[in-house]
Amino acid sequence: MAVPSFVDKVTLHVAGGSGGDGVASVHREKFKPLGGPDGGNGGNGGSVILQVGADVTTLIDYHHEPHRRGTNGAPGAGNNRSGSNGDDLVLRVPDGTVLKDASGEILADLVGPGTELVIAAGGRGGLGNAALASSKRKAPGFALKGEPGDELTITMELKVVADIGLIGFPSAGKSSLIASLSRARPKIADYPFTTLAPNLGVVTAGSTTFTVADVPGLIEGASEGRGLGHDFLRHVERCAALIHVIDCATVDPGRDPLTDLDVIEAELKAYSEATGSDLLDRPRLVALNKTDVPDAKEIAGFVRGELEARGLDVFDVSAASHAGLRELSFAMAEIVASRRAATPVAEVTRIVLRPKAEAGVGREFTIDQVNGQWVVRGEKPKRWVRQTDFANDEAVGFLADRLNRLGVEDELLKQGAQAGDDVVIGDEDNAVVFDFDPQVSAGAEVLGRRGEDLRIDQSDRRTNAQRREELAAKRAFEAERREARGESREPDWTFPEDEDDLEGGALEGGEGEDVR
Fold first, then answer.
1. Residue 204 is assigned to a ligand binding site
2. Which CATH class is domain 366-458?
3. Which amino acid positions bind Mg(2+), per UniProt (predicted)?
């Protein structure tokens, strides 16, 4: 099987690199057994970037390697060391590449050398426990996981960026014409469909320089998939004008210049209706080619009047003798110059493509009841679920606290969710199901916020005021005991408080001091 040298349409699977996981670590050194959290953050994953290259003319590289992925970020480490970021993957594409998603919607049109587009962003790295520490959560025992990168399948279509497009039947002389007008050297032979890929040539006429592209031969039924024309007509969609190259020296039965023109016009109309393009609205010229042949020159004279009556500008040309090429090139230059003058100068701006909101405009999330389950949709809840290590109870508590602050719990209660109901959060193919367990405060009980480590705030040490009260109670007890001994009666020797902490009756004070 022959290996194609020109590919103008490919399907590409791209994925950004995953972010590195954060790490949970505690600083340790001599005489400091608990020096605080020092877990570093994970590195960000590398993105997949499409960049227009001036020297790239085909998509063949992606035909052979249709799967591309960015580099993953490295995980964090202790001692506040963050993981390294993944390397971006830059894919060079030809000028005029159109990107479409799986549904056929156009994502971007890459025109102009140096134009870049981040097609698949890398995932963000997870936070380490040092970044998660706060005044309420002084020693987190968990870290966040890195996020996976974007994954999508796109279709790349190349539409050659040219000012003038040459169209016509096979062997009409388009390749010979572009070779005579410019320094392009396409393959030329005396059999149909010699040209299997669009050819570009640069033409200078006066002070105007423009590009000309020839399209592989059109035949009747090309708009329905016959021949090669339907596949390559996209390459003239950007052209300012179209040139009908008509073979006046053909010997094929049933062929004549007027019939050839009608067939090509019908195919342009069918293609425009099928794709929504406006090829029929472009200025069109007619080049009656091969007039160096005596019979062809005579036929050109017969049909000139009919073509001009249709409002077309007609030129007798010969790619072999170069007759009429100067007039044709200046006519093309006039059309190109007029179009450029009418087109306003585009300001260089930064284009930012943002995905469509998944959960309604202006809302962080939505909740719907599907098959008896409460389905929470929204970018933030899904991202938080992806970041959570469900093997760590404290991390799960932190997730619950984040969802509660976002208002998920209140909205579930508002919609009638009951304790024990299933709550589904996450991507459809990797969702996580929770049992709904709303937080309830009873009486004067003080409950800590979910995800917080209350062990840090717990302290069994008594204050000075408490010590004074206990000391006064102890003295009263001792006085009662002495009084009972003096009266020769048995006292109650039970003292409700532990005397170990009050041994000696000393309170906290300076060294050698007795606050009594």
1. no
2. alpha beta
3. 175, 195
Is residue 173 annotated as involved in ligand binding? yes
On whether 193 is known to bind a ligand per the annotation, the reply is yes
Delimit the CATH 3.40.50.300 region(s) of the chain. 164-342
- Check whether 54 is labelled as a binding-site residue: no
Per the annotation, does 174 bind a ligand?
yes
The answer to whether the annotation marks 231 as part of a ligand binding site is: no
pLDDT of residue 75: 95
**Low-confidence residues of the chain, pLDDT below 50?**
1-4, 187-196, 222-223, 227-229, 348-349, 358-361, 440-456, 498-516
* Ligand-binding site membership of 94 (annotated): no
Instruction: For residues 123 and 148, give the distance between their C-alpha atoms in angstroms, rounded to a whole number.
Output: 5
* 108-138 tens-digit pLDDT: 888 888 888 899 999 999 999 999 998 888 8
Flag whether 274 is marked binding. no
Flag whether 196 is marked binding. yes
pTM: 0.65
Is residue 53 within 8 Å of residue 40, measured between CB atoms?
A: no
Q: Contact at 8 Å (CB) between 332 and 285? A: yes
Question: Under CATH, which architecture does the 1-159 domain have?
Answer: Distorted Sandwich (2.70)
According to the annotation, is 195 in a ligand binding site? yes
> Which part of the chain is CATH 2.70.210.12?
1-159
Class of domain 164-342 (CATH, top level): alpha beta
292 in a known ligand binding site = yes
Determine whether the annotation assigns residue 170 to a binding site: yes
The answer to whether 121 is a known ligand-binding residue is: no
Phi-psi region of 80 (alpha: psi -120 to 50; beta: other; left: phi over 0): left
Instruction: Check the annotation: does 319 bind a ligand.
Output: yes
| Distance between CA atoms of residues 182 and 200, nearest Å | 9
Q: Is 479 annotated as a binding residue?
A: no
Please give the pLDDT value at position 501. 47
The one-letter code for the residue type at 290 is K
Tens of pLDDT, residues 86-114:
999 999 998 888 899 888 888 888 888 88
93, 95, 75: which is closest to 83 by C-alpha? Answer: 75
- Judge whether 441 is annotated as a binding position: no
**Residues forming CATH 3.30.300.350 domain(s) in the chain:** 366-458
The reply, when asked if residue 194 is annotated as ligand binding, is: yes
Give the separation between CA 312 and CA 325, rounded to whole angstroms: 17
Beta bridge partners of 25: none
By the 10 Å C-beta count (0-12 exposed, 13-18 middle, 19+ buried), 342 is classed as exposed
